[in-house]
Q: What sequence folds into this?
């Protein structure tokens, strides 16, 4: 195993500056997209707001694309920051990726707000080409181009990360720790957890984004030349592989904040072990293999694919529940941890990720999917992962960074409010799903509306508490000079 | 089906919550012997892993036997062709009898749609995707007479939420 160089040799002020810019933009976009989300739930409730269907579906597309995009960007920023302490990364490439992302965001927002594109962030083929006059071909092509540019931005950073890990450790397989897992080399518990996580994220998300690029190019080709009409089921496979892998990779990226900061708070090491390496190795495959659980209601797929989708959906929760969350809890147990906003958010992130496994794997069962697919149950489970998993990890890291690593300086009140609002919002989705309320409906029947109103109130609380956390971070971020030691 | 699913999910999430609350309540006083905590933790984790595997195998076998997608197939079923389009449903027959096996042959004229059958209590009893170029066969044996509805559950554009058809289930003879 190659010796890790001193982090101070790798990490410069430029690294920190670009991460701070990246995080600041990310937090602002999160807040804006939350406003969009609250508006959607309020419109479904009808008590506080009404929206015409065309505007509702535009905002829905914006909320989806915006949240997935910013989750990816924020998760990448966290991952990049911690990985830059272990390997030599290029801040210039991260800056180029940021500029490309801004271009992508401009294209995506323009296609939605000016071009009225509203096919959802999943742009399920052939809907982008068949709007019945609501949006133009140009608007759909602009949206798809925006996503393509965003993918290029991510790929640039992943390429830099992959090269840096390979230079330092030999290759991504060694970065993932497989020679140690399979006994080819002795277990070196100084091998950084962040390098293992980063190697996994690079492997899965390069595959995910590459597949996304294929399906986006095919979508654009169909838009420009309708005679090029790919098979709808093939496109569905590609879209859900891309979408599932990409959104999962955001959490696996952000969890590096938990791996790196929880040991600082608890003054205990989070070291690799064979179960740890096995969990990440298994997750590498399962994140890529589990996407058929999105296709369970497409009976044209072979039965064995649906069965595999159900089984892998269950098993993919095990590394989270048995290794990551469990190890995090062992670290905190009787540690004398100092609870502040940052440490609370990091543990909340672990909780959201672990608890979100439950509704996810249950919906992954074919028998349940027959009555739950595309109901509000689905946003219920992924809001658990993202709102109570990923975002608290990002906010926890940002709070820590803004406080220059000083513990006990940030109030936990916003975290309590955030937790209450987030859990209430997720439950409003899950209860709606159990009542068979469809997802992605601009107009809700009167019997369903109270849940939309509950969701809007809960979402407003989440928005308020996010601002209570994010505004002090934004105010302090400029002067943050933390050089996190590894 | 939906209520038990919700209850089981809430219980599962409560179990996860209980573990976090237990640890957080025991986090303020430091125990320096972390190696001892790890040893005990690994022991608990081993049983936790075994429990998850046992639950997984049991649930997998029971939930997939018989295979849910073909479980309700009767011989011979009444075949009803259903075609989705922006934003309508075309059914060649919109009635069936309670207890009578029905097989819906579902496809689409244009984009992806979701063919979901709601019972008179407004709960989904079965669904499949309506895809251009494919015919999905959905087996349903209605148990409850009354007015059922078919809603689109795959977002398909501006009037997606209004894509609804009625389906009547009559009393069994």
A:
């Amino acid at each position: 195993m190659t010796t890790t160089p001193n982090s101070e040799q790798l990490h410069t002020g430029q690294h920190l500056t670009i991460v701070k810019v990246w995080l600041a933009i990310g937090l602002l976009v999160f807040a804006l997209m939350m406003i969009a989300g609250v508006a959607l739930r309020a419109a479904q409730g009808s008590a506080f707001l009404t929206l015409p269907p065309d505007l509702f579906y535009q905002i829905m597309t914006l909320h989806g694309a915006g949240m997935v995009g910013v989750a990816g960007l924020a998760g990448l920023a966290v991952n990049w920051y911690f990985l830059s302490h272990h390997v030599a990364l290029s801040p210039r490439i991260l800056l180029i990726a940021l500029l490309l992302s801004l271009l992508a965001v401009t294209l995506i927002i323009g296609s939605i707000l000016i071009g009225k594109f509203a096919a959802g962030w999943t742009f399920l083929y052939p809907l982008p080409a068949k709007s019945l006059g609501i949006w133009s071909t140009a608007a759909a092509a602009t949206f798809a181009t925006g996503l393509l540019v965003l993918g290029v931005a991510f790929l640039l950073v992943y390429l830099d990360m992959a090269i840096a890990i390979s230079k330092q450790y030999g290759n991504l397989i060694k970065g993932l720790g497989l020679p140690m897992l399979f006994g080819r080399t002795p277990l070196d518990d100084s091998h950084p957890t962040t390098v293992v996580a980063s190697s996994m994220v690079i492997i899965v998300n390069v595959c995910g984004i590459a597949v996304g690029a294929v399906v986006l190019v095919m979508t654009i080709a169909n838009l420009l030349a309708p005679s090029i009409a790919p098979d709808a089921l093939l496109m569905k496979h590609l879209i859900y592989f891309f979408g599932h892998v990409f959104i999962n990779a955001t959490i696996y990226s952000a969890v590096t904040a938990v791996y790196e900061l929880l040991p600082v708070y608890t003054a205990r090491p989070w070291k690799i072990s064979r179960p740890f390496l096995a969990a990440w190795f298994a997750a590498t495959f399962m994140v890529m293999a589990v996407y058929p659980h999105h296709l369970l209601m497409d009976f044209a797929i072979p039965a064995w694919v649906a069965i595999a989708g159900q089984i892998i959906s269950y098993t993919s929760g095990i590394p989270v529940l048995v290794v990551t969350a469990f190890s995090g809890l062992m670290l905190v147990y009787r540690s004398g941890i100092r609870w502040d906003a940052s440490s609370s958010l990091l543990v909340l992130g672990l909780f959201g990720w672990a608890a979100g496994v439950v509704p996810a794997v249950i919906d992954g069962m074919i028998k349940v999917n027959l009555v739950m697919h595309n109901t509000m149950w689905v946003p219920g489970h992924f809001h658990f992962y993202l709102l109570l998993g990923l975002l608290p990890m990002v906010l926890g890291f940002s709070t820590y960074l803004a406080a220059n690593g000083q513990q006990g300086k940030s109030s936990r009140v916003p975290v309590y409010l955030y937790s209450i609002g987030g859990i209430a919002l997720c439950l409003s989705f899950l209860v709606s799903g159990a009542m068979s309320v469809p997802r992605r409906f601009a107009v809700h029947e009167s019997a369903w509306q109270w849940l939309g109103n509950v969701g809007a109130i809960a979402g407003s609380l989440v928005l308020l508490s996010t601002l209570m956390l994010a505004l002090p971070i934004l105010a302090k971020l400029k002067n943050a000079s933390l050089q996190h030691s590894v | 089906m939906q209520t038990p699913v919700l209850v089981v999910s809430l219980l599962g999430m409560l179990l996860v919550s209980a573990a976090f609350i237990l640890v957080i309540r025991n986090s303020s006083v430091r125990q320096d012997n972390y190696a001892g905590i790890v040893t005990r933790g690994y022991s608990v984790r081993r049983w936790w892993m075994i429990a998850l595997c046992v639950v997984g195998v049991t649930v997998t076998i029971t939930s997939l036997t018989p295979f849910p997608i073909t479980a309700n197939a009767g011989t011979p079923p009444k075949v009803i062709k259903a075609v989705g389009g922006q934003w309508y449903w075309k059914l060649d027959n919109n009635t069936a009898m309670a207890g009578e096996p029905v097989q819906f042959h579902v496809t689409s004229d244009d984009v992806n749609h979701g063919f979901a059958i709601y019972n008179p209590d407004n709960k989904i009893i079965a669904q499949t995707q309506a895809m251009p170029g494919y015919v999905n066969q959905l087996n349903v044996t209605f148990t409850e007479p009354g007015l059922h509805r078919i809603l689109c559950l795959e977002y398909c554009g501006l009037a997606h939420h209004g894509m609804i058809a009625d389906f009547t289930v009559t009393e069994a003879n």
